[in-house]
Design goal:
alpha+beta; seven-stranded antiparallel β-sheet; 41 helices; GTPase activator activity; Rab-GAP-TBC_dom; Rab-GAP_TBC_sf; calcium ion binding; GTPase activation
Length: about 1050
């Protein structure tokens, strides 16, 4: 075990230790007298000394020392009772540390580095022995305390786990701790007096990789849009890499695509995520993928056991997984044996008497008078009780629905294919399958072994194809538990018109246009019912292209209701996230496929560095299961394999197709030629059982090699894929999917950003690089709330929008004028949000925000004044607005009526006439969208805003504002007096004409509304133009780049609360 480094003055004191292995920095020593058959007197004395000591003082017989060249001091860093244990630690040191120590120039630094690393390993080793961190509150509480102190993240930021590791800066490793929380990964190191710490939000991670270099034999590389970081020297790198990938995947799915991807409910609640939850979730995802269970299934027990296999006449060891509705068994080696038992088929689960040959047996009896025997089950009593509890609940649920009447019977397509396969071959296959059923069972609960894989590769006979598809996908269980469900869906969905039904009608005649089954109303009607019913069942998916092709093939071999449940199984279980708005699942698998090409076909990958061409071609292979690219009879054989093996069969076959054409693809000169090569090859993949397939007679062999090469038997191609790529496992695929989903989601975010910038940039003058930075700031403010635009909107469907608190936060970061009064700045931010919230949905779009910012930084003087004017009139300024601002103009007071001593009117007549002439053009512009007049209280608010925009020492600007304010007040007073005089005259005329009290009251109230003190936007603008200092202020260029840089640092400090920021160069 690893030990806290303990100093040893003499490496071989009294000759008590013998050095077994050594290098420049480490010694592996054995206690003298231990393990020696012919010990000398020294060994006997040492052995006797060790034996007489009590257990607390005895020394373990093996140890590892850290030594510094040229020093007499060493440190014990590990010890063990067995040589195997110490050799394991020795190998870890050689593999992970020894190469890295050569980079240290000061050898004393080596000792500090290694001691720090060993202490970290001890802490991690203690953590690893815990079932969960919370089981040892002391250790986890200490780690949590350090996490909070070092990084100062919000209290809601939950720490999930932590690891001791090294972060590399160039060629120098920095030993520290990597903390993983629900939204961030954070690293802290304090070594040799130097502190290093940084935080990486999961939302910024674009790629995760395992890399290996000369200095880092095994490391984890985390890539963001700004830089890369490498972490190595984990005690358990596989575990750390898995947890990092899970947390990044969960965070991105929750933040960036919460509506498009299926995410378990417990993972949608970040506060509940723990390391144990992540481990359970990883197993659950694997089980759902391996057995292709419904996504709603919960995993309960995972137990090692053995099941009796009659065909092999022995017990096969493996693992039992229990869920809500299934008992699942998989052999230790994935694929050798799989057993799936729906609880709906189970009659009883009973314990049997235990013997030495059959320890802890359990008997599972099913409805077909068959029983399965499980042995070697730990905690058998509790396990059986839990399974029986779920069985009773399921039986009660089924009994509640038995009395319900069956729905209408489904329509069955009676039209068969015109071209039949060879009848003799078909009969041979049927006999083989019947023999298989008698030996391995028939139904969902049959034993699935390598033998059935060979039968599937040969092609399922047509008479059994529909039945076996239902069995392999377990759609038969859905059918049995939902009697009448499909008929009711058909009734509900028919007659509804929406986008999905329109797309379905458009594609009905494009499904299999050459097939006779869909050249008549019966087949088209059945296809319409299946697709429309599914769109009604799952509106999140609705209808996607390629579903019509798949449903057409299903209808050819299954009854209509069976075909519906097969479609449900494919869309919701076997190809999760494939058929959604952005086909995320298919794109993830394309990214996985590219990595498999690099791994399994390295020579092809070297010749074609950019594999995006191949993945774009293969996208249709995955979406349509090769139905759109292979001849029909060949493609159906692929569908057979898909229902048996799941997506693994498509990966294998895709690799086999590329491997068969590797030479031609390597010599291709462009994407079009590569496409032609693959298309030509797939067109010639036939079925030997179909008429028209080239014969393998000697005469045919004499044909040209090129012609012979073009024709390939689908069975041979499938068998070739199993032989060469059959070692690909479901576990590997799920792990790759987890990592590559990160890249796909981030690529979609980049596309969203590009679309938003492309639509906004023509309407603003903000430079492209600044606009991109503003988008990033906007996005970072947005992410914690997870607001998305209404899915019905066509304008940037996934554009981010900010609520009021978020907008105010970003407003404070980017507003160009100084923050003299926090209260008034908050007031202006509220008014600006109200002004920009044109839809009155309490959200501001990026487009509106960019337009507002463009006006502030790049707008003309009149545009800036117009914006300020609009902020001080309704709707931005509301009647109920509570403005606590204490900032008052020295010339104005808001708590008493405004009185101004005016000079004779004649002194201003000429000046006012000139102003009106100068603003003639501006008035014409205002005619289209005239701005309301501003009253006295609104103008006071406007003046307060102008004063808040300047620094206190800018006296010239304050004087200019005072002058303009006086001028506008005088202009308003002139208008006010003129209105009063005119209204009095009108009032007298009106009262005389009316001759009544009611008429006089009406005239007086009307005059009061019309006589209010007001000024117009044109008058304010004209007054401001008279002061050159104000003109210069509003026309002065503003440095948006510097403001953005400052905003980024402020924003990062607001989000992370870091004490210091590590620069990109650190």
């Amino acid at each position: 075990m690893w030990l806290n480094p303990d100093e040893v003055l003499l490496k071989n004191v009294l000759k008590l230790w013998v050095t077994e292995r050594s290098n420049d920095f480490f010694l592996l020593q054995r206690r003298r007298g231990h393990g020696e058959s012919n010990s000398r007197i020294t060994g006997l004395l040492v052995g006797a000394l060790d034996n007489v000591l009590d257990s607390t003082a005895r020394v373990t017989p093996f140890r590892i020392l850290l030594q510094v060249p040229g020093s007499q001091v060493s440190w014990i860093i590990a010890s063990g009772a067995a040589i195997e244990e110490v050799n394991k630690h020795w190998d870890w040191l050689l593999h992970n540390l020894l190469h890295s120590l050569s980079v240290f120039e000061n050898k004393e630094d080596v000792a500090s580095f290694v001691k720090g690393k060993v202490k970290g390993l001890i802490a991690e080793e203690v953590q690893g022995r815990q079932a969960a961190q919370e089981d040892d509150p002391g250790k986890f509480r200490e780690a949590l305390r350090k996490f909070e102190v070092h990084f100062g993240l919000p209290s809601s930021e939950k720490l999930v786990t932590y690891y001791s590791c090294c972060c590399w800066k160039g060629r120098v490793p920095r030993q520290g701790f990597l903390y993983l929380s629900i939204n961030h990964m954070a690293f802290y190191s304090f070594l040799l007096g130097k502190e290093v710490k940084f935080v990486i939000p999961w939302a910024e991670v674009t790629r995760l990789e395992r890399v290996s270099t000369a200095l880092m034999p095994e490391a984890i590389r985390v890539t963001t849009r700004q830089r890369q970081r490498e972490f190595s020297m984990f005690l358990n790198l596989d575990e750390a890499f898995g947890v990092i990938g899970q947390l990044a995947d969960i965070a991105l799915r929750r933040l960036l695509d919460s509506k498009g991807l299926e995410l378990d409910r417990v993972l949608q609640q970040p506060a509940r995520i723990t390391k144990r939850i992540l481990e359970e979730q990883a197993i659950r995802e694997y089980v759902l993928a391996l057995f292709r269970l419904p996504r709603s299934e919960n995993l309960y027990e995972v137990a090692s056991c053995s099941v009796w296999t009659p065909h092999a006449r022995c017990h096969t060891a493996g693992t039992l997984y229990t869920t809500d509705s299934y008992l699942c068994f998989s052999s230790r080696e994935e694929g050798n044996l799989i057993l799936l038992i729906p609880l709906s088929e189970v009659l009883s689960i009973e314990k049997a008497d235990s013997t030495s040959a059959l320890p802890n047996p359990v008997i599972v009896s099913i409805r077909t008078k068959k029983a399965f025997q499980l042995i070697e089950l730990n905690d058998r009593d509790e396990l059986v009780e839990n399974m029986n509890s779920r069985l009773r609940a399921l039986q009660w649920k089924r009994s509640m629905f038995r009395s319900r009447k069956e729905g209408k019977r489904s329509v069955v397509i009676r039209i068969r294919k015109c071209v039949y396969l060879c009848q003799s071959t078909n009969q041979v296959k049927e006999r083989l399958w019947e023999d298989h059923f008698s030996e391995f069972g028939r139904g969902v609960h049959m034993f699935r072994t390598e033998k059935i894989q060979k039968l599937v590769a040969m092609g399922i006979p047509e008479s059994l194809r529909g039945e076996l598809w239902m069995i392999f996908s377990d759609a038969s269980s859905d059918l049995g538990s939902h009697e009448g469900y499909y008929a009711s869906l058909v009734q509900k969905s028919m007659g509804h018109n929406n986008l999905a039904t329109e797309e379905i009608e458009r594609d009905l005649h494009r499904s299999l246009p050459d097939h006779p089954a869909f050249q008549n109303p019966t087949g088209i009607a059945a296809l319409r019912r299946v697709l429309t019913a599914y769109a009604h069942r799952n509106p999140k998916i609705g209808y996607c292209q390629s579903m019509n092709i798949l449903a057409s093939v299903l209808l050819l071999y299954a009854k209509e209701e069976d075909a519906f449940w097969l479609l449900v199984a494919v869309c919701e279980r076997m190809l999760p996230d494939y058929f959604n708005r952005r086909v995320i699942g298919a794109q993830v698998d394309q990214s996985v496929f590219e990595e498999l090409i690099r791994e399994r076909l390295p020579e092809l990958a070297e010749q074609i560095p950019d594999l995006s061409t191949l993945s774009s071609v293969s996208l249709s292979w995955f979406l349509t299961l090769f139905l759109s690219v292979l001849p029909f009879h060949s493609a159906v054989c692929v569908v057979d394999c898909f229902f048996f093996h799941g997506i693994k069969a498509i990966f294998q076959l895709g690799l086999a197709v590329l491997e068969a054409n590797a030479a031609e693809l390597s010599s291709s000169t462009d994407d079009g030629q590569a496409l032609m090569i693959l298309t030509g090859f797939l067109d010639q993949v036939g079925n030997v059982e179909c008429p028209g397939f080239p014969s393998s007679s000697p005469a045919a062999e004499e044909t040209s090699c090129s012609v012979a090469k073009r024709h390939t038997n689908i069975t041979d191609l499938i068998n070739d894929s199993y032989i060469k790529f059959g070692d690909l496992t479901v576990r590997q695929i799920e792990q790759l999917r987890c990592r590559h989903r990160i890249q796909v989601l981030q690529a979609h975010e980049d596309t969203t950003k590009e679309n938003a910038l492309r639509l906004v940039s023509p309407d603003v003058s903000i430079p492209a690089e600044n606009l991109a930075d503003i988008y990033d700031l906007f996005k970072v403010i947005f992410l914690p709330s997870w607001h998305y635009c209404d899915s019905n909107r066509s304008f940037i469907e996934r554009q981010y929008r900010l609520d009021r608190p978020q907008f105010k936060s970003l407003y404070g970061l980017l507003v160009p004028w100084p923050d003299v009064s926090n209260q008034h700045t908050d007031t202006l931010a509220n008014r600006t949000f109200t002004l920009l919230d044109q839809d009155c949905d309490n959200l501001v779009t990026f487009r509106d925000f960019a337009s507002w910012l463009d006006t502030l930084y790049f707008g003309e003087l009149n545009e800036k004044i117009r914006l300020l004017y609009c902020l001080h009139i309704p709707p931005a300024l509301t009647e109920t607005e509570d403005d606590p601002s204490v900032m008052k103009s020295p010339l104005l007071s808001t708590n008493r009526p405004l009185y101004v001593n005016l000079p004779p009117l004649t002194d201003y007549q000429d000046q006012l006439k000139q102003m009106l002439q100068d603003l003639a053009t501006e008035k014409e512009k205002d005619v289209e969208k005239p701005l309301p007049l501003m009253n006295q209280s609104e103008f006071i608010q406007f003046c307060k805003t102008l004063y808040s925009m300047f620094h206190p020492e800018e006296n010239e600007l304050f004087q200019a504002i005072a002058t303009v304010t006086s001028l506008v007040l005088q202009i308003g007073e002139v208008g006010h007096r003129g209105k009063i005089a005119g209204s009095e005259a009108n009032s007298q005329e009106g009262s005389t004409a009316a001759g009544g009290v009611d008429a006089r009251r009406g005239s007086r109230s009307s005059a009061t509304a019309d006589n209010e003190w007001t000024v117009s936007y044109a008058q304010i603008l004209a007054s401001l133009l008279t002061e050159q200092a104000l003109v210069n202020f509003f026309e002065k260029p503003l440095d948006l780049s510097a403001k953005i840089t400052q905003a980024k640092e402020s924003q990062y400090q607001q989000r992370a609360g870091l004490l210091t920021l590590q620069r990109a160069s650190s």
